[in-house]
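Incident review: delayed structure delivery

Summary: a single-chain prediction request sat in the queue longer than the usual turnaround. Root cause was a stuck worker, restarted by the on-call engineer. No data loss occurred. The affected request and its eventual output are reproduced below so the record is complete for anyone auditing the incident later.

Affected input:
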Amino acid sequence: MSFSLDHVVFFGRTWDESIDMYALEEVDLQGRRILDCPGGPDGLVSEGLSRGLDITAVDPQYSDGPDVLEERGRREIHETVESWIADPETTKDLESMKEYERLKIEALESFIKGYRTSPDRYLTGSLPSLPFEDDAFDLVLSGHLLFLYSLKEHGGLMSNDSFDLDFHVAATRELVRVSREVRMFPTYAMFGETRRHDFVASVIEAIEADGHDVDFLPSRWVQEEYTEFNDSLRILKRT
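Output delivered after worker restart:
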């Protein structure tokens, strides 16, 4: 049976992975109000706070306590990596997958530390309706939900159509509503021919029709063989 997901797994990325993923430098974040959405068990907020940044995360799973989230994270990381390794349609190097799992645990541990010590920086909410005022942030970083969680036939990881094109457009518009700049990753298709994800062009068309500027920034973070179309989608709001 080939690999797919039927729900959003509790995965996150380390600080270094996140910065490279969004084509950022730490200096780019100083003095800005930053939102990680959805935050999941990222190390971004915890590490950002230790660097003096004004950074917040929002995620629907933050309604649960740290013990529940840590158990869920460790379990889902391990189970998902094992399923990925066992997928007959892909060739996975065991050593690289174990390193991938190690980094996911590192991000989770950083998240749990931050979640326990600065709970006010981890807010419960979900796309496409966030609990923030217009322009509440200067920068929103949105990774590994949009485009990734869509049907496999569109280039995502899902076995169901919970996050269809309408959701993607509405969610992206919501990210733009609450911020002056949005960066989203990934934009490539995980399955099928090497290409941009099938929804990217339609999302860009909708956002440009709203009057905003869209471009791509080359990501410095490379996962597996995904070197083509390895970009962060950037939206600059026109006010």
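Verification: The chain has six helices and seven strands.
Action items: add queue-age alerting; document worker restart procedure.
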